[in-house]
Design goal:
Blueprint (H helix, E strand, L loop, with lengths): L4 E5 L6 H7 L6 E16 L9 E19 L1 H11 L7 E6 L1 E2 L11 E6 L11 H13 L4 H8 L8 H21 L1
Antiparallel strand pairs: 1-3, 2-3, 2-5, 4-6
Helix pairs in contact: 3-4
Length: 183
């Protein structure tokens, strides 16, 4: 088997249609997981000011964040970095300790994974209904704890402006073209 790495998703990448569809990455394995001492915050500013925030994590001893850990190739991880803006400082890739919520069927559980964090934050922004629906759907599909899903449902949201929705379609078309180039 070729080299594999683990990537911990806590935002929209938890949703399979986003990770496999929008990003074009098909993981070898997928496990629901927890990361201790990191808190989910929905304060990440976008690259282009659209009046909405995105998921982020910040170090916070005693906190925990639930998400999905994907086994992917190093090339796939580089593609995550590219599409999430790591190369231009939008996020920073870090390594965190992960705990799968259930033992994997093959008994081979990851203990660490790469994830993304950012110091680009704003307490003045909230996520859109559309974005939070992606997080909630991903959490439900992967069987994250009901109290985690309830917390996600309780996050205040805004309605995306029409120009943001149109811009999302342009970004999706660009990501689709990138997937074709990756072959």
């Amino acid at each position: 088997m070729s080299e594999r790495v683990w990537y911990f998703a806590y935002g929209s990448n938890m949703q399979p249609a986003t990770f496999a569809g929008r990003r074009g990455i098909t993981p070898t394995r997928t496990l629901a997981a927890r990361v201790r001492d990191w808190r989910l915050v929905l304060d990440k500013t976008p690259l282009i000011p659209i009046g909405e925030s995105f998921a982020n994590v910040r170090h916070d001893p005693g906190a925990e964040t639930y998400g999905v850990v994907y086994e992917i190739t190093p090339d796939d991880l580089a593609h995550v970095d590219l599409t999430e803006g790591v190369l231009i400082g939008n996020y920073e890739r870090i390594e965190v300790m992960v705990e799968p919520l259930a033992p994997p069927s093959d008994g081979d559980a990851p203990t660490s994974a790469y994830t993304l964090t950012s110091d680009k934050r704003s307490s003045d922004l909230i996520p859109s209904e559309y974005y939070m629906a992606l997080l909630i759907e991903g959490a439900e599909i992967h069987g994250l704890p009901p109290e985690w899903i309830a917390m996600l449902r309780a996050v205040p949201t805004c309605v995306s402006k029409p120009e943001v929705t149109a811009g999302r379609q342009i970004v999706n078309a660009g990501l689709q073209a990138m997937r074709r180039l990756r072959g």
